[in-house]
Amino acid sequence: MSLRRPTDRLLYLGRRPRTPLTPALSGDDWAQASPARIERALARARALPAGGWYAVDASRLIDGNPRAYAVAGQRLVLWRDQGTLRAAPEACPHMGASLVGARVCDGALVCPWHGLRLGSGGHGAWRPLPAHDDGVLAWVRVDDGDPPTDAPILAPRPSGPCLDAVIRMEARCEPADILANRLDPWHGAHFHPYAFADLTVTRADDEALELRVAYRIAGPLVMEVDARFHCPDRRTIVMTIIDGDGAGSVVETHATPMGPGRTAVVEATIATSERRGFGVAARLGPLLRGMVARQAERLWADDIAYAERRAWLRWRDS
Question: How far is CA 201 from CA 145, 179, 212, 234, in A?
Fold first, then answer.
């Protein structure tokens, strides 16, 4: 897949993939982007366990002040108590006050309306929920009928010096529509020409997609890598760079249902590099994190439109 004109000349930055390019499919992009193939891969992903865990937001955003989130049809608050991530229902069990305004005192939430202390033992039907901080994302476990696991099911992440950036955006669609977007790489260079110059699918089956992609740094300057997309659980799709500069880097896209027809896209980019000096660059986290996040938000502004259109077409025909 390429939108280059014959006169375009790309300038390649960094180490390019070592293996020869072997397309997995032939024909026009619209023919390769088979709806049946995408639906099979989506069905396989949706059958995977998730252990009851839902990605909520960047872990660095959660502090001692309770923050409210909608997760799987529930209103929850997340906060930290002496550095430990906590989660619980957002409404006080006494008279329904929002615990976003609660104080954290000696391990308990103190309701701002009447001072009811809500600790680890709960109060009536109000009970804290299991929470997990993986160092990048904050998670909560909800009793959704899935056999629970002690921690979220994560794909391998890079070891050594890393730079991470997290975005959270909301969409009017279902989680399946977010995954379906990522299971359709063929739209990349057509729908995002500002981000991708070349894209060729080298593997396309129900378990994984692999592609060689040249993504734009600035103008004709591009980086070319081989990437693999796969789903480790029913609400997540992970892109891993498997060859080229930044091998081992991942982009985790988590589709967290908020309620009927509403989904939060929580995406974590965790980048690494063999380049000398990357460790120093990674320590410039706030500056680089903002640049990575802005690029991800630009892509998802388009891709949310894609996912919402997919949902609208389904709802229209139901």
Answer: 36, 17, 6, 23
pLDDT at 207 over 60: yes
- 144-158 per-position pLDDT tens digit: 999 999 999 999 999
pLDDT class of 290 with cuts at 50, 70, 90: confident
Q: Per the domain annotation, does 2 fall within a domain?
A: no
Residue 155's closest CA among 242, 223, 86? 242
If asked whether residues 176 and 259 sit together in one domain, one would say: yes
Q: In what order do the strands lie in the sheet with 108-110?
A: 103-105, 108-110, 117-118
Q: Which among 272, 244, 247 has a CA at the least distance from the CA of 161? A: 272
pTM score above 0.85: yes
Query: Domain ends where: 141, 172, 203?
Result: 141
**Domain ranges, residue 213:** 11-50+154-317
β-pairing verdict for 108-110 and 84-89:
unpaired
For 69-96, the pLDDT digits (tens) are 999 999 999 999 999 999 999 999 999 9
| Six token digits for residue 284 | 């410039």
Query: Residue ranges of the alpha helices (H) in the chain?
Result: 29-32, 35-46, 175-182, 188-191, 278-282, 285-317
Domain membership of residue 285 (yes or no) is: yes
**Would 206 be classed as within a structural domain?**
yes
